[in-house]
């Protein structure tokens, strides 16, 4: 697996390539400004290079993740490889009310069966518009072509 692809595989079973923090790395300055304004945040600390990245600007929520720390301490790539899978921490993460967290246990089971390379390829396809533009969990319409997207809908954390 290429190093770039590995950073897109979050230890919890999320696909970082669909995270708005990761997606924002490729946005134009105008698009990034509109996104951070809508989310009432500054660009500093908003951008992320992926869960398994060593880049210091990783999003604070991911940088301080107890699941990532646990996987690192056990020397495993993701929670699905843990003998305690699924643990109470992972189940709490799944059940925390964030829509994009609700499928992590299921995704980790699929990841264990398929392997990282196949899973990553399928996730990249899943989170890509028919026009080829990648999108994030809460994008409702494609930024490039305007088509409706198979996302989780609008982000309930934005007021």
Keywords:
38% helix; mainly alpha; 8 helices; 159 residues
Give an overview of the whole structure.
The structure is a single chain. Helices cover 38% and strands 0% of the residues. The model has no long low-confidence stretch (mean pLDDT 88). 29% of the residues are buried. It has helices at residues 3-7, 20-23, 29-38, 60-63, 66-74, 88-94, 104-114, 116-126. By secondary structure, it is mainly α. α7 (104-114) packs across α8 (116-126). The protein contains 8 helices and no strands.
Number of strands: 0
- Give the averaged pLDDT, no decimals: 88
Strand content: under 5%
Helix-strand makeup class = mainly alpha
Q: Percent range for helical residues?
A: 25-40%
Give the SSE order as H and E letters. HHHHHHHH
Stretches where pLDDT falls below 50 for ≥5 residues? none
- Specify the biggest β-sheet: none
Distance between the termini: 39 Å
Q: Report the C-alpha radius of gyration, rounded.
A: 15 Å
How many H/I helices? 8
Overall geometry comes to globular
């Amino acid at each position: 697996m290429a190093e770039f692809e590995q950073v897109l595989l979050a230890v919890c079973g999320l696909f970082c390539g669909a995270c708005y923090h990761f997606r924002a790395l490729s946005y134009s300055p105008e698009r990034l400004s509109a996104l951070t304004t809508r989310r009432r945040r500054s660009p500093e600390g908003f951008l992320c290079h992926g869960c398994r990245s060593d880049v210091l600007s990783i999003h604070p929520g991911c940088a301080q993740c107890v699941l990532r720390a646990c996987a690192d301490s056990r020397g495993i790539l993701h929670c699905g490889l843990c003998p305690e899978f699924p643990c109470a921490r992972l189940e709490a993460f799944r059940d925390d009310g964030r829509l994009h967290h609700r499928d992590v246990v299921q995704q980790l089971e699929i990841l264990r069966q398929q392997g990282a390379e196949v899973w990553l390829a399928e996730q990249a396809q899943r989170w890509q518009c028919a026009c080829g533009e990648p999108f994030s969990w809460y994008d409702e319409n494609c930024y490039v072509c305007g088509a409706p997207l198979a996302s989780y809908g609008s982000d309930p954390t934005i007021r």
